[in-house]
Design the sequence.
């Protein structure tokens, strides 16, 4: 399949640093496509390669079948919304938006019409005469989007457009971006390090890590079926288990022997054989804990005894850290019933930990787990060094 | 490559100009020091005679005097500028700009005219002269009361003279004092500005933290503020010391025959005596005495810049943890 | 707050120290007796203020003609030096900001060193150049010398301004289809203009103020205002005229700075629909 915007083996080096390493993917026309990754993963470099601010060392970039790899930035029909907006400070909102059209020497009446339409789209009609230093961050953001969109680019590049806004404004702009995308139907390429933004806006996400594209899939797929341990841990929190396949209790299910843990059943969609090493990713919200033993509903239910080590109550859910043998497991439990009616779970309680074998996901390839990718340890375990709480530790363990 | 060509094109105007009128002339000066001079004011054959003649006891004295006066001027400037910079930095933002502007304002009047105004003020009939003479008499009176051991030190360091002042010879005009006074006057803003910029960036909550932890205000000033603006101190030092070394107009107009510095000697040799090689050699000496402290400062800055910042933070942290050692 | 009180007092004293000569310059412009430079007669009687020095200057009286000529020369040289050094300084700052090559580090050294060189060394080295190449000293040599030291100041002023400059703005212009020339004239130059004006103002004052370098390269008979004044003595008859002239200049510069501050602080709408 050939996409609208296509990368073919693109590599970019800065000195000895490999910023983008042999990346190939394609974006469909009209799609909202996100590049997601931590800072320094090469996503912004990739965007700058499309915009034309950088040239790749290897590979090609195709836009609608045309090779734009060596085309200078001002000759490409893509436009960018910059992270800090990069509005021209000496031009008014109106002149900022009209800039691209004036460069293209469009007729005067057309410029006026187009800019007015854009101002309406971003709801800035009454601010047309203001200067960038006279409007708020959210308004600057809108002007930056309008300035790019007015040129009718074939792809709109957005470089962390919401990073400089505060939380409330970010959520509002998120909705507005979605609406604008629906309205103009232009292909959006969105660069962000915020998984929440990427998940809520995108049709598809490319998760990047140290210059490599780790997975390209829909948001739900990326979350539920991560290909690599990086993807699993970068998108949401997860528990990793690495074990060896020991037996097949039924078709499509296997038993895993996990070092320092009980044997667990899991869904074997990767056709693993006995003796294979497996990385199992289990999202914390897939587990349940209870004081009473769980009702036996289906045969693939794993049920274990565990001891509660830490509890953080957050209203709509509670985070538990429980230990099973030498293992700590993070559990995020929604309160489905009326919490005060349930038997309370306290520190040091012995509880039941159970989950459906279908909810775990085997990573594609086995790799030793990088400790730094695991969810943060809750306070308490390593806190004995804290002089203020040294007395309380013993009481809690009792 | 077009990119290289563009760079060359944009760089060349200033590059060529400065090479032609700055770099090459400097090299010519250096080259001239290895020539002898001819009687009619020309430049003679290649020789080391110029450098040999510099051993003339006259020159080292002048070099030393220049450095001493420059150091004096620098010390006064920084001493006066520190509290000013501190005071301005603690003002409200609006006032800061106004006061900083007010400090620079006198310097929009012509330099020479300002020096001339001083010359008029310091005239033997002027009121400043009378004040100065009264001060000299007071100093002589104090000297009488000093124990002999301290007297020796005072005379040696130039703080006092053993003879009582004589009205005829103790005029400020045409003396070292006038040169130092007016040099401080003309260079003071160049000490205040870098110190003020550094003080403005200084986080004054560190001072509050220090005081909160029991440090007296002067202790906090010395141990937290001064290290915090160290970069500014270095800049202030360079901004004052270097022009002071090269100063020539002020000693010429106010120092008379009593205060001849390298600058004056260079001018004399170059314009009046037409001894170009000698002037070049003196200029080289001056360049050395400028670039030596500068090189040291730059070296120090490179090695300290990073550590400095950390040290201020560590010091503040240590203060916060209660160890005021 | 004791220290604060101390530092405020010091600031007050320093301000007084800085302003006394300026006030004196202003006052001496009105002195009735140009020889004794005093407002008091021999008997200690106050003689009042006199406006005759202003009259002399505005009428171009023959006794102040050499002074006015030197002043006019200074203005011409400062104006030309400002113009040339603004052009050279702008290109230099742009080059230094845009590229980080070996050439630029040499370039930076060339621009930076004149700033830390004492004036007298620049003066003597230029004199040596003119001596070595047999150029007659005069108007052009003064102009060359002034441009040489002004370029560095203009460049540094601009470079400091460029540091606050968001380079993405340039990228944004390219991104919106503008070429290098369009970007330079429509984006970079308007944004840099306040910096260029500030640098130019600095160059102008430095040039009109300079006496050290000029006294090396002016040759016989060519005097700028500062060199002319420095050759005067206390008993030159027209001394008050000098003070009048510099008072006028101070007022003029203040007005100029005020206007430029006003223009740069306030780039409000000039847009016609």
Sequence:
């Amino acid at each position: 399949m050939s996409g609208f915007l296509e990368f073919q083996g693109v590599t970019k080096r800065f000195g000895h640093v490999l910023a983008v390493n042999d990346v190939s993917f394609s974006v469909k026309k009209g799609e909202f496509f996100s590049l997601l990754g931590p800072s320094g993963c090469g996503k912004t470099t990739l965007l700058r390669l499309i915009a034309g601010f950088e040239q790749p060392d290897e590979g090609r970039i195709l836009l609608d079948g045309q090779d734009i790899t060596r085309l200078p930035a001002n000759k490409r029909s893509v436009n960018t919304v910059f992270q800090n907006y990069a509005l021209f400070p000496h031009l008014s909102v109106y002149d900022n938006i009209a800039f691209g059209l004036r460069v293209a020497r469009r007729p005067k009446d057309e410029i006026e019409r187009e800019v007015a339409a854009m101002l309406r789209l971003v709801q800035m009609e009454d601010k047309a005469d203001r200067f960038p230093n006279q409007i708020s961050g959210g308004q600057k953001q809108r002007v930056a989007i309008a300035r790019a969109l007015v040129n009718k680019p074939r792809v709109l590049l957005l470089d962390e457009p919401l990073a400089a806004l505060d939380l409330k404004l970010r959520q509002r702009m998120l909705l507005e971006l979605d609406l604008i995308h629906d309205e103009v139907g232009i292909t959006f390429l969105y660069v962000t390090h915020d998984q929440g933004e990427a998940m809520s806006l995108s049709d598809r996400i490319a998760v990047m890590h140290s210059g490599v594209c780790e997975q390209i899939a829909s948001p739900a797929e990326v979350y539920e079926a991560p290909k690599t341990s990086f993807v699993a841990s970068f998108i949401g929190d997860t528990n990793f288990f690495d074990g060896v396949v020991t037996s097949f209790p039924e078709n499509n299910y296997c038993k895993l022997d996990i070092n320092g843990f009980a044997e667990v059943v899991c869904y074997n969609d990767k056709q693993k054989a006995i003796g294979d090493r497996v990385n199992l990713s289990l999202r914390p919200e897939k587990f349940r804990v209870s004081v009473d033993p769980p009702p036996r509903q289906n045969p693939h239910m794993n049920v274990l005894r565990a001891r509660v080590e830490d509890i953080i109550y957050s209203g709509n859910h509670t985070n538990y850290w429980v230990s099973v043998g030498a293992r700590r497991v993070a559990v995020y439990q929604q309160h489905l019933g009326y919490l005060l009616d349930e038997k309370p779970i306290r520190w040091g309680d012995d509880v039941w930990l159970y989950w459906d074998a279908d909810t775990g996901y085997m990573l594609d390839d086995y790799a030793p787990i990088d400790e730094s990718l695991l969810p943060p340890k809750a306070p308490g375990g390593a806190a004995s060094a804290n002089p203020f709480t040294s007395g309380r530790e013993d009481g809690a363990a009792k | 490559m077009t990119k290289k060509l563009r760079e060359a094109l944009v760089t060349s105007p200033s590059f060529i100009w400065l090479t032609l009128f700055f770099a090459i002339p400097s090299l010519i000066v250096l080259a001239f020091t290895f020539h002898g001079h001819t009687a009619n004011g020309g430049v003679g054959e290649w020789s080391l005679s110029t450098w040999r003649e510099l051993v003339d006891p006259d020159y080292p004295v002048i070099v030393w005097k220049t450095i001493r006066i420059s150091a004096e001027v620098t010390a006064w400037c920084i001493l006066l500028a520190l509290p000013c910079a501190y005071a301005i930095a603690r003002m409200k933002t609006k006032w800061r700009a106004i006061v900083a502007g007010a400090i620079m304002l006198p310097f929009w009047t012509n330099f020479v005219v300002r020096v001339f105004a001083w010359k008029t003020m310091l005239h033997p009939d002027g009121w400043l002269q009378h004040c100065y003479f009264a001060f000299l008499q007071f100093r002589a009176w104090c000297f009488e009361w000093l124990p002999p051991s301290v007297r020796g030190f005072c005379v040696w360091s130039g703080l006092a003279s053993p003879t009582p002042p004589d009205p005829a010879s103790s005029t400020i005009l045409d003396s070292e004092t006038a040169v130092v006074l007016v040099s401080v006057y003309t260079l003071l803003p160049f000490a205040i500005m870098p110190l003020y910029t550094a003080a403005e960036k200084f986080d004054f909550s560190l001072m509050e933290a220090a005081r909160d932890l029991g440090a007296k205000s002067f202790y906090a000033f010395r141990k937290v503020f001064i290290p915090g603006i160290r970069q500014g101190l270095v800049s202030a030092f360079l901004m004052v010391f270097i022009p002071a070394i090269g100063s020539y107009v002020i000693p010429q107009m106010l120092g008379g025959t009593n205060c001849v510095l390298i600058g004056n000697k260079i001018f004399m040799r170059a314009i009046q005596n037409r001894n170009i090689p000698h002037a070049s050699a003196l200029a080289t000496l001056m360049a050395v005495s400028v670039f030596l402290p500068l090189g040291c400062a730059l070296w120090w800055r490179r090695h300290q810049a990073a550590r400095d910042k950390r040290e201020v933070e560590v010091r503040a942290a240590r203060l916060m943890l209660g160890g005021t050692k | 707050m004791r220290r604060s009180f101390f530092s405020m007092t010091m600031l007050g004293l320093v301000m007084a120290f800085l302003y006394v000569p300026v006030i004196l310059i202003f006052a001496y412009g009105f002195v009735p007796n140009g020889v004794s430079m005093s407002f008091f007669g021999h008997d200690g009687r106050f003689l009042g203020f006199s406006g005759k020095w202003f009259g002399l200057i505005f009428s171009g009286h023959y006794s102040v003609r050499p002074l006015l000529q030197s002043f006019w020369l200074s203005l011409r040289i400062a104006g030309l030096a400002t113009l040339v050094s603004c052009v050279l300084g702008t290109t230099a700052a742009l080059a230094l900001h845009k590229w980080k090559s070996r050439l630029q580090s040499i370039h930076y050294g060339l621009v930076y060193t004149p700033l830390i060189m004492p004036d007298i060394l620049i003066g003597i080295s230029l004199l040596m150049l003119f001596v070595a190449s047999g150029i007659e000293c005069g108007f052009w040599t003064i102009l060359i010398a002034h441009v040489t030291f002004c370029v560095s100041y203009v460049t540094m002023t601009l470079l400091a301004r460029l540091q606050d400059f968001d380079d993405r703005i340039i990228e944004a212009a390219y991104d919106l289809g503008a070429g290098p020339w369009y970007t330079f004239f429509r984006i970079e130059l308007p944004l840099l203009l306040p910096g260029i004006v500030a640098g130019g103002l600095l160059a102008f004052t430095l040039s009109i103020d300079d006496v050290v370098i000029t006294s090396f390269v002016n040759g016989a008979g060519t005097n700028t205002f500062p060199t002319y004044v420095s050759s005067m003595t206390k008993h030159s008859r027209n001394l008050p005229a000098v003070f009048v002239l510099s008072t006028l200049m101070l007022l003029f510069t203040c007005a100029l700075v005020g206007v430029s501050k006003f223009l740069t602080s306030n780039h409000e709408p000039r847009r016609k629909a």
The radius of gyration of chain A is 26 Å. The first helix of chain A runs from residue 43 to 51. Residues 378-398 of chain A have pLDDT under 50 and may be disordered.
